[in-house]
User: Fold this.
Amino acid sequence: LASADTLDAIVAALPAASGSPAGALLAPFTAGFYARVPQDELAARDPADWAAAASAFLAFAGQRTPGVAKISVCNPSRAVDGFESSHTVVRIVNDDMPFLVDSVRMALVQSGASLHQIVHPVLAVTRGPDGQLQAVGEGGPAESLMYLEIDRQPDAAAMQALQATITSALADVRASVADWEQMREKMARIADDMDSRPMPVDADSRAEAQAFLRWAVD
Assistant:
């Protein structure tokens, strides 16, 4: 994991904090953002580049509609993002839930884009009713933050197509996660009900059906 000295160097390279709420969040956000990145990956780049990437990500994550993944795909520029890259950058802010990283990886494979770098912290955040970020690491629901560098995309059309593919994949994840516990509970109830439910099968077939449902639940 990232060393304390490396995190301190990245935080020290951040732009001076302004009096705005976002400025006050920048240092703690950056430390949390990179805390679980392997040390050798962080050491391979200048702290100023990591600092600029975190600052741009915080600006992107500053507002999000509740219950909706926020996604961007761009070729970063120093004028807009504060840093440049030979790769295309994907930024994703979402409610934390299972299957996110694997689903995004599959979407990239589907689009023919190779992954070169991933930073994926899960941070507790507090947002206002309008989705505006108010605090980081002080309680609140967990959010999944993904920063990915992928093969350079040639134009806006390619980036829009990739963004649509990722959006669709994450919508499928949200739909699946929303009802999978209910499906598991329903299967378990049906397996239990089979003990007393009339069925046109013998006892061995009944037991086999129950065993299958309980296996699926597990």
User: Anything to note?
Assistant: The mean pLDDT is 94. The first strand starts at residue 70 and ends at 74. The CA atoms of residues 69 and 171 lie 8 Å apart. DSSP finds eight helices and six strands in the chain.
